[in-house]
Request: fold
Amino acid sequence: MDAKLTLKLDKDVIEKAKIYAAEHKHSLSFLVENYLKTITKIEDIGNAEELEISSFVKSFTMGNGSVPEDFDYKKARKEYLTEKYK
Reply:
């Protein structure tokens, strides 16, 4: 059963995640759900070191991902969709 969840996240992280999700043809909800499924399986695995977490996801937690201050998400999204559906 699906349930709604409201999250408060850094604006830049949200913008990058939306672009990433669109580029990989997934919804942001799908990515978040699968990430949460992965990290909650740590108890089943027994050791967090055994989990492989992508560098993209690590950039959220480590703060390594950066978006220029003048980055225009709407423009980038428009350009992406224009190119995708040519």
